[in-house]
Amino acid sequence: xxxxxxxxxxxxxxxxGTVIDHIPTHAVLQVMRILNLEQSPHQVLFxxxxxxxxxxxxxxxxxxxxxxxxIEINKIALVAPTATLIEIRDFEVVSKKNVEIPDTVEGFxxxxxxxxxxxHEEVPTRFMxxxxxxxxxxxxxxxxxxxxxxxVFL
Amino acid sequence: xxxxxxxxxTDFTKxxxxxxxxxxxxxxxxxxxxxxxxxxxxxxxxxxSTRTRLSFESAVNRLxxxxxxxxxxxxxxxxxxxxxxxTIRTVSNYSDLIVMRHPIEGSARWASEVxxxxxxxxxxxxxxxxxxxxxxxxxxxxxxxxxxxLHVAFVGDxxxxxxxxxxxxxxxxxxxxxHLVSPEELKLPSSVxxxxxxxxxxxxxxxxIQEVINKVDILYMTRIQRERFSDPMEYERVKNSxxxxxxxxxxxxxxxxxxxxxxxxxxxxxxVDANPKAYYFQQALxxxxxxxxxxxSILGLx
Lengths: 154, 302
Description:
With 154 residues, chain A is an alpha+beta fold. Helices cover 18% and strands 38% of the residues of chain A.
């Protein structure tokens, strides 16, 4: 079986559900965590270091019988900006879209500033995305910027 | 502005600030007015601050209101482990307005979201201190007769000084030319310079204070703190380069005024105090008028 054929099998062997494709291979577990798939009642399959024509190597996650809402989808964009969402019903691809970095990020990223109230009391974090290209998040509370390399997920 | 909180200098528009400054002039002329009779203002100071707290309390008292609160977190139930949110919700029941200082950054924004009464931020850690900024604007207006087109120098710790950050951001509304004097390690952060650039205003950076004295209208001095330096040798090297003495003012413009948020340590020599250009104690007095104006606006009494 060719590589192409194997990939075909991985992606399409799902009757209903969502395939998250083109995830940077190092980000697969992070995406699983952000979407809370470890606690999911659905069947979840994932792969890392798969071959990709576009990116060399990629990761993939398949979730059976689950369709994500836009908030969940946009969370993925923070760690996997290249990801593609493929929705499948009755073995057919019904939609395919790229993730988009949202304007605001609420509740799942930790503020980098140790002196921020969100790191001292039970306050849900909230950021404005002030730079989508370099991913800079401005904290709604302490007004400090958390940069891409400092992002930690809650 | 009725029933709105003031947490950050960016919460109000230029017009709203000008309205507060105009009202402050009114309170400067008539500081004793009993418009706050029957009102209770809570001053919650989770960290000590003599000047800011007394200035708020003086403002409330002169307007005939009552003040409740504490000036030290150790006497509040915070010391029993109560969350800020619970303290604020409780005090909301006892007061019409809460003035709060807290060492944690973002605490004032959070308080404004859980309180059922408006919050005035009197300092949240190194983040914001908007009433200081308002009183500085008022003082600039009072001494120069205008806020527009001025040359303003900020001297000292421009990196961590929250008053400098708020003042720079506020002054970008008034076509200010900025002269920024600091040691290399304590330059104005790029996030603040961004505001100057957005408005396409001019700014110049210096390490020598003498270079700016003769060309500016306002000389805003700040304290340089030892703990801000990663290298103690560097602190020792620069600590005496940012001290203003009277003899340095010989060639200054007539309208120059020297401001300082206080407390000062040694950055303004005592021999400057007698110079008519020294204006920092009048600046502190203006804090009362500006806070009267702000409190009266937020409570909808003017």
